[in-house]
Amino acid sequence: MKKFLETIKNIWSIEDLRARIITTLGLLLVYRLGSYVVLPGVDSTMLEAANANNSGGGLLDLINIFAGGAFSRASIFALGIMPYISASIVIQLLGMAIPYFQRLQKEGESGRRKINQITRFLTIIITAFQAPGYIASQITTHQGVVPNDGPMWWFSTVLLLITGTMFVMWIGERITEKGIGNGISLLIMIGIVANLPSAFVFEIASRFGIGGVGGPIVLLIEVALLLFVVVLSILLVQGTRRIPVQYAKRIVGNKQYGGVRQYIPLKVNAAGVMPIIFAQAIMFIPLTLAGFGEGGVTSWFVTTFSNPNSFAYNLTFALMIIAFTYFYTAVTVNPNQMADEMKRNGGFVPGIKPGKKTAEFIDNVMSRITLPGSIFLALVAILPAFAMLGGVNQAFAYFYGGTSLLIMVGVILDTLQQIESHLLMRHYDGLMKTGKIKGRSSTGMGMAG
């Protein structure tokens, strides 16, 4: 405890780090307060009553978790940062296939600014398409929620939702630039964490309240299992396979360069949380099709794949995550480029010929470690369904795995890494006794920033 208090004192004594932390907390507070500002013309009391009578389904609850509750409250931040995430994913995919975006990625800072500008414009377009759909499906569909829903109200509400999303994006960028951690990832995480206290209170009430089942023993077991899953998720995030690389000796003047052994850390989960996001986006399609077709095969398909607890949903979800993990890893990790850079710098893997043989070796290693990594990622993604089957309430079960847990673990570890870097740079002890937190190099579990 004394060590912890001393670390907090060291953090607060660094002026730059203190200013960054205060800026981050202030901007996150603005985001949370904005999530409670209801759109003009919406009767919040009627909307709350309508939401209470209509559970909305598991997928809508999942969307609401990412928005920190703003989605169900019809807030000005109802669409949150997700349109920006969607735009970033689109730009990232375009960078894999279109030469123009590939050139921008190689142009350094100027190319990055152009990509950010394009991403912002694409965010506006995506939000402009999502906003009317959100209004029609979640607000005006309830009687009495909007007393006067004329054309002017529609126009102003769509404009407000677009403005809200752009303001949230601006908050995320300011946190990244002036604060601590990755701003976009922190906004997603704070929205997820905001639901944890109420979900835990509901779980306690279900165990100790009137008609409660299980009592304190079951609650303690649930908390212990949650901590165990968190530890496993940390292992998944930090797990690496180190490939030794030997560099040839070079003598320049009176100095010797190279001749040392270094390591290439290949992450077990190089794709981060992106496979779950891609798979989840596709699993939202049945919810979109819910309004089309009645009865027969269409009705069975929509009913089955709109239920996150069904066997078919979770099996399909897990297989898609495994496939997307291989796809995203193949796109982000380029063995040929790694082999060429090693050869150019006089490095080689012991026992492996430089060049093509090294690329094949790295590719084989990545294929082997990606399989268990993808399977484990799929298991973590479907754990909430098992938790709900075990009697855990739906809100609390979402923290047992899936995108929520992985994003929280990745963002928290990355933020701690940045804080520790500030401490070590000024010759303070790190957050851990060893003075170094190992295994963390990804930013926000691959989330776009």
UniProtKB/TrEMBL annotation:
Originating organism: Vicingus serpentipes
Record-level GO cellular component terms: plasma membrane
Entry's Gene Ontology BP terms: intracellular protein transmembrane transport; protein targeting; protein transport by the Sec complex
HAMAP family the UniProt entry points to: SecY
InterPro entries from the UniProt entry: SecY (IPR026593), SecY/SEC61-alpha (IPR002208), SecY_CS (IPR030659), SecY_dom_sf (IPR023201)
Transmembrane segments: 21-39, 76-101, 121-140, 152-172, 184-205, 217-237, 271-292, 312-334, 369-389, 395-416
Quaternary structure (record): Component of the Sec protein translocase complex. Heterotrimer consisting of SecY, SecE and SecG subunits. The heterotrimers can form oligomers, although 1 heterotrimer is thought to be able to translocate proteins. Interacts with the ribosome. Interacts with SecDF, and other proteins may be involved. Interacts with SecA.
Coiled-coil regions listed: none
Protein name per the record: Protein translocase subunit SecY
